[in-house]
Amino acid sequence: MLTTTRRLFIGLLVLAACGTAESNHKKPAPAAAPTPTASGATELGYFAGGCFWGVEHFLEQLPGVIDVESGYMGGPVDAPTYEQVSSGVTGHAETVRVTFDPQQIGYEAVAKRFFEIHDPTEVDRQGPDIGPQYRTAVFVTGPEQRAIVDSLIARLKANGYAVATTVEDAGKFWPAEEYHQNYYVRTRKTPYCHMPVPRFDQRASS
Q1: Nearest to 29 by CA among 174, 181, 175, 177
Q2: Residues 172, 90: contact at Cβ < 8 Å?
């Protein structure tokens, strides 16, 4: 039998889980259209690091980032729903698609920020969110992106971090439901399991 304290702890974890705090029947304010670049040229990056709300929140603050969209990648199921992905059996990870202007910011800077705002040493979880859908992964679009990510991971390992991040070829990106998009901007809440840590400038604590 569960104790009262244990029930409370489990309840808090459930409430904290990404997506459970708001019903998918609520209609959010429509997202603003991305601002076009002067040259019209953009590039894409795909990053998974726990609940996509927090990853989206921090990456969209980078100068040169045009748009960040929450969604799903890495599994074989077509058009997965949040409920399917959150079951942990579809193979998908909560992923963000970052559209950026390469004239203003490079892929390396975006990827570096990704490694700073989530804990790349955690396996199949991020903070209170547990399951393979919350794994840390970078989905690369080609050998150039892969080389950049591999280099960043090598730097982190040299600083003593046991990096669990996988580097995988990008597949089909499925946008998440509207109520997931721009979550922290709309709700005026703050990320509960993401925060910037200068991992490239400091060694891992023993």
Answers
A1: 181
A2: no
Helix, strand counts (H, E) of the chain: 6, 8
Residue range 68-114, pLDDT digits in tens: 999 999 999 999 999 999 999 999 999 999 999 999 999 999 999 99
Whole-model pTM: value is 0.83
- Reply yes or no on whether 51 is catalytic: yes
Among residues 51, 55, 68, 152, which one is catalytic? 51
Summarised one tens digit per residue, pLDDT across range 121-173 is 999 999 999 999 999 999 999 999 999 999 999 999 999 999 999 999 999 99
Residues 6 or more apart whose CB falls under 8 angstroms from that of 89 comprise: none
Q: Residue holding tokens 């040169």?
A: 64
d(CA 197, CA 186): 25
> Please, are residues 100 and 45 in contact by the beta-carbon 8 Å criterion?
yes
The three-state DSSP-derived secondary structure of 69-120 is: EEEEECCCCCCCCHHHHHCCCCCCEEEEEEEECCCCCCHHHHHHHHHHHCCC
Distance separating alpha carbons of residues 50 and 128, to the nearest angstrom? 10
**β-strand partners of 43:** 100
What whole-number distance in Å separates Cα of residue 156 and Cα of residue 201?
Answer: 9
